[in-house]
Amino acid sequence: MKFFLLALSITTIGIFCGTAQGQVSNAKLEIRVMKRPYGENTSRPFVGVGVFDLLRGGSKVEGASCPDKSGISGGVNCFIPCQADQNTPITIQVKPPSDQDHLAGWVTPAAQIVELRGCKLVPQLVTMKYDDAKYAINDILTKYAVANHPNSNTSDQWIEAFKSDSTQAAKVAEEATTSASGRNDLLSIFRFASEGSKAYKLPRNKLSADEAEESLTLTKWQILSKSALLGAQVEKIVPENQRRMIKFEVTGDVTSYLTSLQKADSLLSAIKEKTPEQRKLADDIKTLRSMPVTGMDAQAALPIIQQWK
């Protein structure tokens, strides 16, 4: 009898210890959500942003959640199931939301990576900063402004300068096509301008004077970036003897851009024996001609022009 009770006691202790070692708890991840409005030099809390996704290998982490939107301080708390005795590190991607009306006109920050080992997170706090799309464009344009005006003081003024001087804007866009980094800049400008346009949902004649001017600037940069990339791609794919001296204008004007698309379409159609690259470009241009040129729906062109970088 004593032997039976002793064995039972040892078994019970073993079960208890096993449960304690494998006990599931929660690791707490803090997210600080900030925003940088255009015209302001400092960031401030962004209220009402959520819900964030926690992913592992492209799938949501089972049982993990960031249940609330950001509060008045911009804070969000996330909880991830964990086991203290789990020594294998787990990589988790923290993905910010991007497709909410509340976020129209803001550039979504990149996803961030945290590592979970046992119940310890590194880092325990991540900051997600949403930039006003106009600010994001201005950051890119400032590089070119400083290059052309070495004694300038850099600031928010440069998007204003390019807005009032379309010749200077076209010059910058054309210059950017001459390098891989410049073409990436143009792709970013197009993406940011398309994102920014989502903030102006009313017809332009119902916007305030400042809003209408800002909306028009974003429209111009949507077209400028595409027209510059179009011209560079045609010159890359179509040899000079086949281009028949046709020059593609870098423009922020809708009509001129559509004319360039039509000229490129006709030019490629006239080439009887096309290379695979020319056939692909001909298809791309036909697709672009069927798409909206400006506004929030113009972003559908991004997968096409991304291939031109």
Shape: globular
Strand content: 15-25%
Q: What number is the mean pLDDT?
A: 87
Task: Give a short account of the largest sheet.
Answer: 5 strands, mixed
Provide the succession of SSEs.
HEEEEEEEEEEHHHHHHHHH
**For the terminal residues, how far apart are their CA atoms?**
82 Å
Radius of gyration: 27 Å
Poorly predicted regions are: 1-20
Measured as a percent range, the helix fraction is 40-55%
Structural class category: alpha+beta
Q: Provide a count of the helices.
A: 10
Count all strands and give the number: 10
Write the layout of secondary structure elements.
Layout: H1 2-21, E1 24-36, E2 44-45, E3 53-56, E4 59-60, E5 75-83, E6 90-95, E7 106-107, E8 112-117, E9 120-122, E10 125-132, H2 133-148, H3 157-164, H4 166-176, H5 180-197, H6 209-237, H7 240-243, H8 254-269, H9 276-289, H10 302-305
Parallel strand pairs: 1-10
Antiparallel strand pairs: 1-2, 1-5, 3-4, 3-6, 6-8, 7-10, 8-9
Helix pairs in contact: 2-5, 3-4, 4-6, 5-6, 6-8, 8-9
Compact summary:
This protein is α+β, with helices and mostly antiparallel strands. It has helices at residues 2-21, 133-148, 157-164, 166-176, 180-197, 209-237, 240-243, 254-269, 276-289, 302-305; strands at residues 24-36, 44-45, 53-56, 59-60, 75-83, 90-95, 106-107, 112-117, 120-122, 125-132.
